[in-house]
Amino acid sequence: MSSNPNWGQLPTLVLTNVFQHLNHRDRLNASRISWHWRSVIFQPRFFKRIQFDVSREQNKKISFYLQKLAHIVSEVKITFDSSNLYDVELTAEILFKLSKSSRLLSLTICPKNATWVTPGISMRRQLRATAYSEEEWNYILKLFVQPVKALLTRTNPSLRMLDLGCSESLALHASEFLTASCTAKPQHLERLCFATVKQDPGHYPLGLIEPSLFEKCTMLRVLTLDYDIMCDDMLQTLQLLPLRQLIVHVHGIDEDHFGLSEEAWASFRSKNPSTELHLTLVCAYEAVDILHTHILRPSMPLTHLKVLFCERINCDALEYLSRHYKDTLRSMVWVDSMRIEEYRNIMELVLRTEQDPLVMMAWRCKKLEEIIIHGYVLDPHNLVGVSRLRGRGLKCLEVSRIDLSIPSVMMAPFIEEISAQLGKRWSPLDAKTLPAVLGFYPVAEELRDRYILNYIRKDIMQ
């Protein structure tokens, strides 16, 4: 009898116990010992999540994932180029197979573009949408919406998280998704991401969600919605849920939208004192002007404000932030591309406000951890003031344009002072470190949309 064990044929139970003591990388390396060891590794306990990065180059990997892993994992994320028809159709195939899974708890569908293509549409329609044809609607309904609804109506186990990746095409079906979940176990839903980035921020169809559809989502912790869907009745329903994070995207402001009242926000905040409100304006060319008069309300539990590519800065809104959110505001981001024909100088704009709004924000908002401003020329004296007021509590101070009237040789003392106050080496972003989309205007819409999609997804609590 041989004294040498046949390591390649160890019993499955023994191998499983061994694998449990290894981290994921070591487990994968160990599985290369033999075909038998390899077969044992494909268990739900060893594979919790996978990500499909859809492209022709990834076909073999995608096929392997669908064959070996799709039916055992509990979390799936699909990233794809929604402006590429091949990727869209392959994503639809993946969704169909995932809809048969009996273990999937979390699904993220993450297009890389705001624009979607479907078979047979014109090039004009591909580049910038104004309406959805019946053909497009039926295509998305059959190949994308129905598989998701199949997962939402499954009861054992029920879906816990659905993230539509800011897709306007899918979010138009949000009401259907919620209705489908109500036939199963909506009380198990923990995260729903329905907020969008519009294909055409100036003209888009309005989605509707009846507030009562959220009533049974009694475990919902994270919710993202478009401002168009929000109303006082919606807030009244949401205040009954254990929300930790509410993210609202603002695009256009419809003339029939009544806005949200101060009373509704006050009631919401009293019932949900720990909820974080993230407000994001995306290419909201009109809404940015009325941000402080029609959108912001004193009782909002506002912790994060992002204003992305709205083509102007609203200093009255900045002043409003410092006055009303001194106990909640943690992050303020205002991002635009720089225009060649005009240096949109914040120093000129703040003359109307008596005091620099950034300095006042740093002074009043005791929880402020992040200030990011791109596309506007800033006064270095004010940046020094901000750094002195916030000190090391300001974890991120990111700018790219400093007053060009000051010679570069005279900038060194400002940079040294800011670095000393922040407790780390600091400097404004330059041409090498600044993302191309934040360079000189005009910027390709596809490049801008990709930047926006990547940037705002950082908001969602992990």
From TrEMBL:
<feature type="domain" description="F-box">
    <location>
        <begin position="4"/>
        <end position="50"/>
    </location>
</feature>
<dbReference type="InterPro" id="IPR001810">
    <property type="entry name" value="F-box_dom"/>
</dbReference>
<dbReference type="GO" id="GO:0031398">
    <property type="term" value="P:positive regulation of protein ubiquitination"/>
</dbReference>
<protein>
    <submittedName>
        <fullName>AGAP005622-PA-like protein</fullName>
    </submittedName>
</protein>
<dbReference type="InterPro" id="IPR032675">
    <property type="entry name" value="LRR_dom_sf"/>
</dbReference>
<dbReference type="Pfam" id="PF00646">
    <property type="entry name" value="F-box"/>
</dbReference>
<dbReference type="InterPro" id="IPR036047">
    <property type="entry name" value="F-box-like_dom_sf"/>
</dbReference>
